[in-house]
Design a protein that fits this description.
Elements: E1 9-12, H1 18-29, E2 33-38, H2 41-53, E3 57-62, H3 70-82, E4 88-91, H4 106-140, E5 147-154, H5 155-159, H6 165-185, E6 190-197, E7 213-216, E8 219-222, H7 227-236, H8 245-256, E9 267-270
Parallel strand pairs: 1-2, 1-4, 2-3, 4-5, 5-6, 6-9
Antiparallel strand pairs: 7-8
Helix pairs in contact: 1-2, 1-8, 3-4, 4-6
Length: 274
């Protein structure tokens, strides 16, 4: 059976850990040519090495998706490595910086908008010339080549979540962007969809501990969820458990593959029934 992403150039952000890592490895098994990013060199290098050891093709780009110039450099690395065509973009990179509204700083608020909305917008804008020109050429030749954009959201964005006004707002924002781009780029045969995850087992949803932090811009940002909240969440999930990164990645693969060629502008909740 032909692999679903055979020869497709796929860009995935936040690929060093969790859902991004699982997505990269799954895409590699389906024949993708991978351009992967992460803030941290070590986990990113490990994923790239694992893909290559298994006979796949991958290149890593270390950097902060919110940094000026990152998007252009990320896309350019893809073009220089695999040629002037991009088939799949997965905007997965992100983190949380929780706080109740009356104690939230401007910095906390803006940080979530930058990583979950502005960064995906910039990456897609940087890739636009390659996606659009190839699509127009194919249309003139009478050919149809489907391309895919998958934006990662959260049920915090669809339903809200106390203590996460900034994160919820940003994750809702990427849904509006997804639906708008699906309308703009549908004529170019680009499927644009989003996945809204519930509780998936990653470092962002592990039990909160004092040493559980993300270091960014010289700050140590606490991540994780209080254990008592996780106990309540488990009771709210009909399947009775959180999802694994591998289970999350399979939904992203569906949206990146030919299986979803007539699916666009949609938000798929992946929550175990929550």
């Amino acid at each position: 059976m032909e692999k679903m992403l055979e020869g497709k150039v796929c860009l995935i952000t936040g690929a060093g850990r969790g859902i991004g890592r699982a997505t990269a490895l799954l895409f590699a098994s389906e024949g993708a040519k991978l351009v992967l990013s992460d803030m941290d060199q070590q986990p990113l290098g490990e994923v790239v090495s694992q893909v290559k050891d298994q006979g796949g093709k991958a290149v890593g780009v270390v950097g902060d998706v919110t940094a000026d110039g990152f998007a252009e450099g990320f896309v350019q690395r893809a073009v220089e490595t695999f040629g002037p065509d991009i088939h799949v973009i997965v905007n997965n990179a992100g983190y949380t910086w929780d706080g109740v509204v009356h104690k939230m700083t401007d910095e906390q608020w803006e940080a979530m908008l930058r990583v979950h909305c502005t960064a995906p917008f910039r990456i897609i804008r940087a890739a636009a010339p390659y996606i659009r020109e190839n699509a127009k050429r194919e249309r003139a030749e009478g050919r149809v080549v489907m391309r895919k954009i998958v934006n990662v959201s959260s049920i915090a964005g669809t339903d809200g979540n106390a203590g996460q006004a900034n994160y919820s707002t940003a994750k809702a924002g990427i849904l509006g962007f997804t639906k708008t781009l699906a309308k703009e780029w549908g004529p170019l045969n680009v499927n644009v969809n989003a996945v809204a995850f519930g509780w998936i087992e990653t470092r962002l949803t592990q039990p909160k501990k004092e040493e559980t932090v993300i270091e960014k811009d010289g700050k140590r940002i606490p991540i994780g969820v209080p254990k008592e909240h996780l106990d309540v969440f488990r009771l709210m999930i009909p399947l009775g458990r959180p999802g694994t990164p591998e289970e999350a990645a399979r939904v992203i693969l569906f949206l990146a593959s030919p299986l979803s060629d007539y699916v666009s502008g949609q938000v798929i909740k992946v929550t175990g029934g929550w």
